Amino acid sequence: MGRQQNGQQNRQQDGRPDGSQGTTRQAVVIGGGIGGLTAALALHRQGIPVRVHERADSLEPVGAGLALAPNALRSLDRLGVGERLRALATPHPAIGLRHPSGRWLARTSTSAFEAYFGDTIAAVARADVITALVEALPADTVRTGSPAILVTPGSATEPAVVRTSDGEQEADLVVAADGLRSATRDRLFPRHPGTRYSGFTTWRAIVTPGRRPDAAGEVWGRGQLAGIVPLADGRVYVYGAALAPAGERAADGDERAELLRRFGAWCAPVPQLFALAEPDRVLRHDVWDLADPLPAHHRGRVALLGDAAHAMCPFLGQGACQAIEDAVVLASPLTPATDPAAALPGYTAARLPRTTAVTAASRRIGDLAALRSPAATLLRTTALTLAGLLPARVLLSRSAPTYSWQPPALGDAA
To answer: Which residue ranges form the domains of the chain, and what is each CATH number?
Structure first.
């Protein structure tokens, strides 16, 4: 990057930050999750050489599904992988919200959703998204088992410097997609208070029932909820969320048993699906978010992306979707001859207000889900039931600011 790993290639004069020459901007991505891989693909589509450094030894996510909303699918269309992922999604007639007794509180047909937004919500396994992104990149783009650490963020006149197992290397652009506990974020904004525990812990698993469940959506109880998302090939993504102290885990070490203790008396098929999970493949994570927005999503030649920039609660289903948006917005003004340092203020200007609003909206939904007292939950149930009586168009219009977002155009210099 900038200075090649073997130190043998020098830049030539073209106004680059070190004053030497060369015409191709080079980028380093820290983190090989969905946000980092999407950023790499977007930069590749713009003709910018890019290398992804992923700390883990492999890109094999397990136990999780994703709901790719229209805003994310439109962004993935810009990258040429949207249709592939739509084709992996399993259609279902309706999505909605139920009481633990099984009574529907609100329900919307997927045909009404698609008619309103012009697209669907594609529920796919996280592994399928990773595979689609990796296969769209040149074969040598992603380096696993390769932690990368930002040494200096650079400036308008100096390159950024990243340390990897191959030593230090310069980069015209660093994309920090290093997640919730981003070391890069801490390096750029050391005075920021960081993430805050939301009060919720979550469980996730992918199971294969004998028959596809009739219902898709969520079930809300007192301070906890469960979700059912049909996937391709007869699989189902199931998840639960509940208020719990940070760091708490099942006393007997069996998180599937913990799910059944918490949700075993709920309506079918919630307990039946949780019972199908393999105990050692149930993922449990506490939910942390950036309740205080960062002052910017960049500094110097470094752009923060995804959870590193705006970690959010999962209750709006927009964490990965916003990271995908980030990637397309970041890459859209860049070309091999563009200086990234000049473009990054525009990235912050475009992304900070939107992600702050989405993060706050997700937190508000979490606050509703967190209600536990009988009076509060009764009031919530009544309000949701009344909302469910409204015309579908009225209900869907409330999601329009999130789902109707349109991505900028990308070139295809690759």
So the answer is: 27-60+128-195+291-364 (3.50.50.60), 82-125+196-289+370-402 (3.30.9.30)
